[in-house]
Amino acid sequence: MLYLVHMQVQIPADADRALTDRLKAEEKAFSQKLQHEGKWRHLWRVAGQYANYSVFDVESNDELHTLLSSLPLYPYMSVNVTPLAQHPSAIAPN
Amino acid sequence: MLYLVHMQVQIPADADRALTDRLKAEEKAFSQKLQHEGKWRHLWRVAGQYANYSVFDVESNDELHTLLSSLPLYPYMSVNVTPLAQHPSAIAPN
Amino acid sequence: MLYLVHMQVQIPADADRALTDRLKAEEKAFSQKLQHEGKWRHLWRVAGQYANYSVFDVESNDELHTLLSSLPLYPYMSVNVTPLAQHPSAIAPN
Amino acid sequence: MLYLVHMQVQIPADADRALTDRLKAEEKAFSQKLQHEGKWRHLWRVAGQYANYSVFDVESNDELHTLLSSLPLYPYMSVNVTPLAQHPSAIAPN
Amino acid sequence: MLYLVHMQVQIPADADRALTDRLKAEEKAFSQKLQHEGKWRHLWRVAGQYANYSVFDVESNDELHTLLSSLPLYPYMSVNVTPLAQHPSAIAPN
Amino acid sequence: MLYLVHMQVQIPADADRALTDRLKAEEKAFSQKLQHEGKWRHLWRVAGQYANYSVFDVESNDELHTLLSSLPLYPYMSVNVTPLAQHPSAIAPN
Amino acid sequence: MLYLVHMQVQIPADADRALTDRLKAEEKAFSQKLQHEGKWRHLWRVAGQYANYSVFDVESNDELHTLLSSLPLYPYMSVNVTPLAQHPSAIAPN
Amino acid sequence: MLYLVHMQVQIPADADRALTDRLKAEEKAFSQKLQHEGKWRHLWRVAGQYANYSVFDVESNDELHTLLSSLPLYPYMSVNVTPLAQHPSAIAPN
Amino acid sequence: MLYLVHMQVQIPADADRALTDRLKAEEKAFSQKLQHEGKWRHLWRVAGQYANYSVFDVESNDELHTLLSSLPLYPYMSVNVTPLAQHPSAIAPN
Amino acid sequence: MLYLVHMQVQIPADADRALTDRLKAEEKAFSQKLQHEGKWRHLWRVAGQYANYSVFDVESNDELHTLLSSLPLYPYMSVNVTPLAQHPSAIAPN
Questions:
Q1: Is the N or C terminus of chain H more exposed, i.e. has fewer CB atoms within 10 Å?
Q2: What ipTM was reported for this prediction?
Q3: CATH of the domain at B30
């Protein structure tokens, strides 16, 4: 089941650099693990912004929330979720 | 080159039914042709709305505009375009 | 799986009264059938508005979209969907 | 009498961790007490956000305000209230 | 129990004049009846707009909705409701 | 002459508690003095928010601004003013 | 007493041309009468829009509303009013 | 003197086709005349929308308004104007 | 050439009081100098807000920007500029 | 390929002055290098704001993002990108 997820990251200018560097590295590792598992199906950078549009493929709203709220940078993110359904003109199933 | 495209369709209640039925059929055919060519890479229905989120893979802003403005339902659409770039954590190229 | 759904109805002043009366009756019947089936779990009127907040309990985004887009008044509605997850402080499962 | 309540929590990054952990524990206990009393009828997590949608069942606007402003995390919340009425198509009373 | 109600009226330019004149007269009569009963406690014109801010004093959300949706001009109104509570600095009860 | 005034208070989490407690006490005293004088005609809490809707009865825009900008909590407030006029259907003068 | 007034005019494409031409002529005459009387103190076109910013100098909110709602084009206008007070750095009284 | 101008065109579905075709042709001719004169310095299509961003180089706000309000499609446009100044890092004068 | 300028001032609660007092005094002096020169033609307080609406009369967008960005409180301001043109119904030139 | 880019800069009042002065100097140098290379085709100051509208001429969304995210002041910017296409009435190619 697919969801479009919009994540905007806002790290305060006075945040501890060592901490945020570590979080970013953990975020990247976690994100790539989920991509390899097929749960984080797409990950695109929004041109010109510290933001991404992603597509998640999960079993349920609960699984989606569990994954998103586990992101290391989650406390610095503003997240918006759009549930996606099969489009009748799509040539492939979701 | 990828773009996230948000299309919202608004057909007036008093529109000519035969006309809009024809346009919808043409829209579907055109959309599927572009999907088969790989230019309209993803097409998802927004759950609960007469709207879709799509990802286009085209050569340029000009090609994108040419395709979108050729859509049979374009006069009834509100379209928003977000240019996408390669995300450094993505495991696959765009 | 639960979704909060916000439906705002806007019937044009010049709409055919007989048609919209029939649609409203069909909407009520369909809505009550879904409530009896447990799929439309809650239905509340927003005080002072021709709008409701509802909670749907369905298997998937696709089932949700199928139900919503089948509503007789769907062409006159503006619909917004918020996917809900289990809250860690809730004393009952969703 | 029912109200839909939307609570968004924003705890500053530099907040005292011990304090906010204590407030969160108190919030959970208070929330569960109100749920057991039937005043906080529903509590759902918004998927992907530190936010919830809740339904309160109270005697009056005053009781609602008293409860909400007593929440331990209230100073960190942005709260929005929508008064709900009986929907004519609902199969059960509110 | 008090509610602040914001009503904005929008009558289409091509509406039937005889009909809307009748509705306006009925609206005035109904509004004055409710004011005399003490249910429509205040009624103020927003300077420069076909809109009012009102304060209703009713038993419940349901009574409020019943009154508002009975207004003759209701189909032409955009209505917004804010539930009011006792302010701790107010020198008089609500 | 009446004005609807919407005041939203936002006191930063790290504000000096002694200072803000003193300001709140002064605010209450000043507010009650103005209510007794008839200038602050109504004061209602917005349910669920650190905000109020008030009605002021003053001689002029200048008097209104002088009063509002003298509020002890004014530096922490976001204030919005709506000038009110006599409504033709009101049964009492403003 | 001064008010900044923002007027945006929207005449439907299918409006009766003879009628709107007459209303525009009446609007101009009425506006110039009020300017000569000193009540409509300033009238400026917003560059690129069928809109103006104006400053009215009137006795009260009521007089302002009476004037604005008497404008021949009022039914086609969206009007916003900002009450103005004396600025402490202004070198002239309002 | 430069201005960024955003024009969004909205032609109603039931507009007279012959009329709008004529207006579009006149719009194109007028636009190209102004471009050749150097007053309409840039004209870009917003990808995916019936809209453009333009840069005008004119003597004054008045000249800008005269030009924009003379556009044949002006009655169907929503126009927004941003006055531009010389940027201190620009390598060329405006 | 006239511009309507909206200035909203937001001085952080923890700003250095001596510094901001000095800036406010300088702002007042600079503002009055520009008013005497005729460049800052009008200056009005928005009732209930730390904000003003002003009208500037300058030669160009560049002069306007130079003046505004020279304001001592400019770093604490949110500024919005609306270019004004001669209104055809105005009885006096701009 | 052209993009309209809107950059708004917000430097916190308590930022380290030496650091931000250095960043501003680097920003200017980098910006002028890109202008000389033809990639940053236009750079205009928004009158009255610490903001600019720019036009970039680059090969792709990726190149655009690489350039923008390399700006020394990027962490202090809010950036918005609008992809531009050839306008059919433009007398010159993009």
A1: C
A2: 0.96
A3: 3.30.70.1060
